[in-house]
Amino acid sequence: MAVRKPGLIALFDLDDTLTAPRKAATPSMLEFIKELRKVVTIGVVSGSDLSKISGQLGKTVMNDYDYVFSENGLVAHKDGKLIGTQSLKSFLGDEKLKEFINFTLHYIADLDIPIKRGTFIELRSGMLNVSPIGRNCSQEERDEFEKYDKVHNIRSKMVSVLREKFAHLNLTFSIGGQISLDVFPQGWDKTYCLRYLDEFSEIHFFGDKTYKGGNDHEIYESERTVGHTVTSPDDTLKQCKALFLA
Q1: Which residues pair with 180 in a beta bridge?
Q2: Half-sphere exposure of residue 83, counting CA atoms within 13 Å on the CB side?
Q3: Residue 182 annotated as binding?
Q4: What is the pLDDT of residues 202-236, one digit of tens each?
């Protein structure tokens, strides 16, 4: 019978790490996670909110993972129980929030990109998610925007403008997924979840956007983690099998 390695946790990003972007996890990934959990403690940390995580990893996600950190860990669950929350609205206050949202919506309105849909800013518990194309786009439109963005750098240019304009708010801007960027106070990146993992001496983190400016960069670089860059869910399986199940 498999025995769990004490003091060790495998922590996973969601999109392009456990699943294709915004897609449900494959049956083979779900089965693999069950097997992996027999030998190591496992957790997921994503910029997405809990409803999006459960939409991708299944309604039983709270039972399938030891830790579920939504919104970078600003909403934290352990063994299915809420262990911590943080509120952007309380932290910034309505005036500063309004200032940021007004400017950002004007910026998006003036952007000349092939298409726009709806829901350009989503206020989550611990962050703002900003999408130049709008979150209501179809999967096909997401894929097209991602290609367009790689050529025209729409999101990275937007980050540069917002970073300069709102330097006084000490915000972090993090490009994630296919169509958006996350905005949150400095220190509220994915390393935020590490405050709940003091009992672990070995924290392995797996993510795809580990480059500077990507939303996995800070936790990948953290001195508290052993960072692993993955290129796809299949690559995640391959690396984990070699590390933990060999």
Answers
A1: 176
A2: 18
A3: yes
A4: 999 999 999 988 889 999 999 999 999 999 999 99
Q: Which two tokens stand for residue 184?
A: 């949150």
- Read off the tokens for 172: 């972090």
| Of the candidates 218, 177, 204, 245, the residue with the CA atom closest to the CA atom of residue 12 | 204
d(CA 244, CA 42): 12
- pTM (2 decimals)? 0.81
CB proximity list for 124: less than 8 A, separation 6 or greater: 49, 71, 88
Q: What is the DSSP string of 80-143?
A: TEEEEE--HHHHH-HHHHHHHHHHHHHHHHT---S---S--EEE-SS-EEE-SS-TT--HHHHH
How far is residue 84's CA from residue 49's CA, in Å, rounded to a whole number? 14
pLDDT digits (tens, 9 = 90+) for 130-159: 999 999 999 999 999 999 999 999 999 999
For residue 27, give the amino acid letter. P
Binding site annotation covers 4? no
Residue numbers annotated as active site: 13, 15
pLDDT 10s digits, 102-127: 999 999 999 999 999 999 999 998 89
The Cα–Cα gap between 81 and 73 comes to: 13
The answer to the question of whether 148 is labelled as a binding residue is no
Question: Is 180 among the annotated ligand-binding positions?
Answer: yes
The span from the CA of 119 to the CA of 78, in Å, is 31
Q: Name 19's bridge partners.
A: 15
